[in-house]
């Protein structure tokens, strides 16, 4: 390179796309904290709500297998986007064995005061703005590790 030449560096998004490690999520049920990693570095941490009973939120390694904006709450036939919908604004389904990604997931809530508590039937609840960030940021097949420390 000679003096006066311009060095062009590719946009960050190009560098991120070439990464071999990528995103990973860890959920610590004992602290109700969800941590997002990129290439093994912490990107963001979120307070979450998990199962009323420790056994309700499954532990193990899973992947995000579907993403739904304005998910319907089928048990009570509540349409997506309705204020009374307990799933909030977005759903990221996990491939817990035997569920096809539609039983356990990471989702928003219509009850923001529940975040940080043990309140769900097994899913991981987040503030709607936080789950939207996950929805927009994490690709399908992102690993999700759920554990109690």
What does this protein look like?
With 149 residues, the protein is mainly β. It has a single domain, classed as L,D-transpeptidase catalytic domain-like (Beta Barrel), CATH 2.40.440. Helix content is 11%, strand content 33%. The protein contains two helices and ten strands, in the order αβββββββββαβ. The chain has helices spanning 12-17, 128-137; strands spanning 23-28, 33-38, 41-47, 50-51, 60-69, 90-94, 105-107, 118-120, 124-125, 143-147. Strands 3-2-1-10-5-6-7-9 form an eight-stranded mixed β-sheet, with helices on one face. A two-stranded parallel sheet has the order 4-8. It starts with 11 loop residues before the first helix and ends with a strand.
Approximately how much beta-strand content do the residues carry? 25-35%
CATH class: Mainly Beta
How many E-type strands?
10
- The ordered string of helix (H) and strand (E) elements is HEEEEEEEEEHE
Gap from first CA to last CA: 52 Å
Please name the CATH topology: L,D-transpeptidase catalytic domain-like
């Amino acid at each position: 390179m000679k003096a006066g030449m311009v060095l062009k560096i590719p946009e960050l998004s190009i560098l991120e796309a070439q990464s071999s490690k990528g995103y990973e999520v860890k959920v610590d049920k004992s602290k109700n904290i969800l941590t997002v990693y990129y290439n093994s570095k912490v990107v963001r941490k979120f307070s979450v709500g998990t199962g009323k009973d420790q056994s309700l939120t499954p532990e193990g390694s899973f992947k995000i297998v579907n993403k739904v904006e304005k998910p319907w709450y089928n048990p009570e036939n509540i349409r997506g986007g309705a204020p009374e919908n307990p799933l909030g604004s977005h759903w990221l389904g996990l491939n817990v064995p035997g569920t096809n990604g539609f039983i356990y997931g990471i989702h928003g809530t219509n009850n923001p005061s529940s975040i940080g508590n043990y309140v769900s039937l097994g899913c991981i609840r987040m503030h709607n703005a936080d789950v939207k960030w996950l929805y927009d940021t994490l690709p399908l097949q992102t690993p999700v590790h759920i554990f109690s420390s």
